[in-house]
Amino acid sequence: MHNNRMTITQFIIEEQRHTKGATGEFTALLNDIVTACKFISNAVNHGALMDIMGAMDTVNIQGEVQKKLDVISNDIFIQSNEWAGHLAAMVSEEMEEVYPIPSKYPRGKYLLVFDPLDGSSNIENNVSIGTIFSILRCPDGVTNPTLTDFLQAGTRQVCAGYAIYGPATMLVLTTGNGVNGFTLDKNVGEFVLTHPHIMIPVETQEFAINMSNMRFWESPVKRYIDECLAGKSGVRGKDYNMRWIASMVADVHRILMRGGVYLYPLDSKLAKKGGRLRLLYEANPMSFIVEQAGGLSSTGRERIMEVTPTQLHQRIPVILGSKNEVAHIIAYHQDSLKEDADAIKNALYAC
Ligand SMILES: O=P(O)(O)OC[C@H]1O[C@](O)(COP(=O)(O)O)[C@@H](O)[C@@H]1O
Ligand SMILES: [Mg+2]
Ligand SMILES: [Mg+2]
């Protein structure tokens, strides 16, 4: 079935019909996630009309002040997804520990990881924000999952997606068969397939980075951005444009729509933390989506989805987007590693 009124549920049912061994559990789980995103979209859209703006007097595990909407979105995600028997446990940016499905509900074979509200520093400014999620399989035989069961490399994701609450609410999804985008038709309350088979343009002249961190960057990133800024008369031979929304969902969504690169690299300020963005519920799901749309996603040194996590809230450097441009930045990291190795060799010979 392919028509111009295909809802996200119909799309998933159709996709699962061709998936060997599918029982309907995954379809039902995604349906609950979609419902949660509709509830969050509704809350976000009310803005200051409801008492949901502003900060709480709590901080999350990251030490960041929680916004009321962070907490509301987290509650919505839990309530929508804990009851149906498809999940064994959940992990969220807003919760320090693993959230096991309470014993009053049945447990299922999947694990859900999510950032309930991404870009929440933008809430008060009415700038696009979103929700990011990733579905993993609960390891065989595990009925009471703990932290280690969530420490799976991104290559093992069953599904990843995000909802973006912008001028329109959209949900973008991959189950490993490409990337599709759905727009919420508020009149009927359904996400409708509007962006089938999204592919990121291979080439780009647009980068997204928080330039205020320039003095802290490592040399390959500094070299890349310097060359972008040099424009047509520099070694890249073309003028670049820049965007930085400070909502990863909004920056990644733009890249899916028209190409570009997004960088939140390692810098000397973040060195101890390992990066800014979180591996399990920001970097991995976005990497799965970007790769499925023909792009690349790397730390600069390795493919993000091949990193084995060691902590629930682990942070990681992120460089993702248009294939050729990300490959170019990775090559600069390799040059820099080679220069470092040569310098060590020369110093040893000099002794
Ligand atoms: O404020 P900075 O340093 O530019 O960082 C912005 C980045 O941080 C994030 O907002 C982190 O997400 P949260 O709002 O979920 O903490 C990304 O979405 C965004 O790209
Ligand atoms: Mg986030
Ligand atoms: Mg968040």
UniProtKB/TrEMBL annotation:
Record's GO cellular component terms: cytosol
Pathway in which the depicted protein is active: Carbohydrate biosynthesis; Calvin cycle
Residue ranges annotated for the Fructose-1-6-bisphosphatase class 1 C-terminal domain, each copy included: 200-333
Cofactor requirement: Mg(2+)
Pfam families: FBPase, FBPase_C
Catalytic reaction(s) noted: beta-D-fructose 1,6-bisphosphate + H2O = beta-D-fructose 6-phosphate + phosphate
Protein residues bound to Mg(2+) 1: 93, 115, 117
GO biological process: fructose 1,6-bisphosphate metabolic process; fructose 6-phosphate metabolic process; fructose metabolic process; gluconeogenesis; sucrose biosynthetic process
GO molecular function, one term: fructose 1,6-bisphosphate 1-phosphatase activity
Residue numbers binding substrate: 118-121, 210, 262-264
Binding site for Mg(2+) 2: 115, 118, 282
EC numbers, comma separated: 3.1.3.11
Tree of life domain: Bacteria
Top EC class of this enzyme: hydrolase
Predominant location: cytoplasm
Database matches in CDD domains: FBPase
Subcellular location: Cytoplasm
The entry's keywords: Carbohydrate metabolism, Cytoplasm, Hydrolase, Magnesium, Metal-binding
Cofactor: binding comment: Binds 2 magnesium ions per subunit.
Domain Fructose-1-6-bisphosphatase class I N-terminal: 6-196
Family: Belongs to the FBPase class 1 family.
Subunit structure, as described in the record: Homotetramer.
The name this protein goes by in its record: Fructose-1,6-bisphosphatase class 1
Organism whose genome encodes this protein: Beggiatoa leptomitoformis
Gene that encodes it: fbp
